[in-house]
# Entry
Amino acid sequence: MARAAVCLLRCDLRAHDNQVLHWAASNADYLIPLYCFDPRHYAGTHCYGFPKTGPHRLRFLLESVKDLRETLKKKGSTLVVRKGKPEDVVRDLITQLGCVGVVAFHEEATQEELDVEKELCQVCEQHGVEVQPFWAATLYHRDDLPFGPIARLPDVYTQFRKAVEAEGKVRPTLQLPDQLKPLAPGVEEGCIPTMEDLGQKDPGTDPRTAFPCRGGETQALARLQYYFWDTNLVASYKETRNRLIGMDYSTKFAPWLALGCISPRYIYEQLRKYEKERGANDSTYWVLFELLWRDYFRFVALKHGRRIFSVRGLQSKEVPWKKDLQLFDCWKEGKTGVPFVDANMRELAATGFMSNRGRQNVASFLTKDLGLDWRMGAEWFEHLLVDYDVCSNYGNWLYSAGVGNDPRDKRKFNVIKQGLDYDGNGDFVRLWLPELRGIAGADAHAPWALSSAALRQVGVILGQTYPQPLVRAPEWSRHINQRLQGRSPHPRGRRGPAHGPAQHKDRGMDFYFSRKKDE
# Structure
């Protein structure tokens, strides 16, 4: 009897370097590539009930599903789409077809996804169907780590990075054949739902967005081609990555990586090819450095399980977090009265995207300046980010809150200094806060430091047209006073519109490993 393979796709929406499809192409007579719109992904977040999948990521997901369907059709197959829990959909296919011999999927790292895998295994066991899991979420394969069991994963990133760079080996990418096996007889491909079907409205595209891209493997591969080969932008990535405005200051791979539209191993192969043909430098290395961060957070989730979602974090640390919903609403709506924070939060709400520099600052402000439960921020990011990745999101928030596995838990960002350093002319603030557009230069970062007369001249009334700051941290005053005296608090502040500062050797991810106390 001919055997069909159900290839359950989740965060692996690509044809290139897809081990599930590659394996099934050689081990089954029929292929059933399957994507399920799981209703649990459109329910509320665990603690605060925000819709898990907001409009920006949902639109990107729908585009990615459509793109994969078109790609598979060119190979003689298609993507079967269903609304429902994967374990229920797979059970229905097994009983309906009578020829399903195996269910293959890529394994995930966090609890909700692992629970789905457990349910799938139970369904398959009940029906005598083989299960074929694979690991493909990371650059370095889980089984190739130089630590042995995942329990031995270092609790400091630098130790992890040095070990895998010295001893690890990246597996080669996999190529699908030009033609795939057909669907099993009787399988209908199904309709791809609309945003309205899933409870959301199309958010439109804000012309100010730094990420005006569509979802899908086709666009992901085109972006890499553009960023590496067409423009050589990768060769200056380290110098530009902390900018705030525009598409090309960073790779922008993250949204596609989050849904698996592009393989980290493919990025690695192209990066090594670029270095061989056009030269390696600190910038090309930095792309790899950040892929390793992504790996690390995934392996931390494997090691610590549910603890990455615990309010006490990985250190089981008691912190008296506040749960003030009024303060939180000011933060999420970009109405804290601190322009650099507000501009970033409004960019997120309008576009689903925020720069890495912005994320570090707004997270620090929420946890260290406002003292709010870090899970509020993590779940709000889960709702809105177009590049939401559960491991990276929660890993970053644990670090920001000081309850991750970084021993330097007293880190706090000076958001005024950061704004002056990375948006020295105030261009980013004025882009997203139209009520402050009349304030020239860097003064836009601290409007409360200007006189009432100066504010009236540009139509700003604090407390009416723009909020008074919710808090005023004492460490802000030195930088504000220096600015008012006509001096930049740091030469980095004079680098032009939303330019990043000069890089510091071995600073790593600036947020997590800053050596400066007054960051």
